[in-house]
Amino acid sequence: MLLTATASALLMLMQQAPAEGTDWDAEFGVEAKQRDPVTGEFPVDPYPQSNANAGAAPYDGAGLAAAFGGREGIARIAARTVDLSEADPRIAPIFASHDMVRLKRTLGEQFCYLLGAGCDYTGRDMKTAHAQMGVSRADMNALVENLQAAMREARVPFAAQNRLLAKLAPISRDVVER
Ligand code: HEM
């Protein structure tokens, strides 16, 4: 009798077992994120937007931005810094599984804003953006080396390079966690 009950319970379980090809995300209520068809970016949770999120005040005047090749030059340097970092074995694992399309845009905006090239920064604040990432001082140095390489490739004069780095140094306090 007991055996029959167990057998029929097992049978019921087997009947309820999902068929092959089951959508496990749907089964567990995981929502698959879709890239925006226009921007190519994944959606992020809402947050207050402000230039204050850039973490520092911008430089005045157009001369510095010109040394970086204007807005286009700045965007290229930010994107190149991201590409180099994504391919850099020292820090690549930190970038894996994050949205590099969005990072290229927001980092470009931040550099553009800080260099006084007239952009608004629409990304998250630096503490929120890097929370729980476990970025170390050595990771920070690796990223700065990649930025320096990108600026060198773009032939940004040394003095102008140092002015951007000077803005990033205090910001790094909100990024480095160990
Ligand atoms: C002063 C130095 C740094 C600045 C100015 C900076 C700037 C930024 C900006 C503007 C964002 C985008 C925020 C947003 O999209 O809302 C971001 C995100 C990110 N940063 Fe940094 N960053 C710095 C250092 C680093 C370092 C050292 C690493 C790792 C080695 C790193 C890894 C990342 C990653 C993986 C994201 C994507 C976060 C996400 O998608 O949620 N950052 N950073």
Explain what you see:
It is a single chain. With 178 residues, this protein is an all-alpha fold. α4 packs across α6 and α4 packs across α8. The N and C termini lie far apart (63 Å). The protein has a domain at 60-174: Orthogonal Bundle (Globin-like). Helix content is 53%, strand content 0%. The mean pLDDT is 91. The structure holds protoporphyrin IX containing FE (HEM). Protoporphyrin IX containing FE is lined by residues 91, 94-95, 98-99, 102-103, 106-107, 110, 123-124, 129-130, 135, 139-140, 143, 168, 171-172, 175.
CATH architect. name of the domain at 60-174: Orthogonal Bundle
What can be said about the biggest beta sheet? none
Task: Give the averaged pLDDT, no decimals.
Answer: 91
How much of the residues is beta strand, in percent? Answer: under 5%
What Rg, in angstroms, do the CA atoms define? Answer: 23 Å
CATH superfamily of the domain at 60-174: Globins
Based on helices, strands and strand pairing, what is the structural class?
mainly alpha
What is the gist of this entry?
Helices cover 53% and strands 0% of the residues. The protein has 178 residues and is mostly helical. The chain has a domain at 60-174: Globins (Globin-like, Orthogonal Bundle).
Task: Offer a few descriptive terms.
178 residues; mainly alpha; 9 helices; binds protoporphyrin IX containing FE
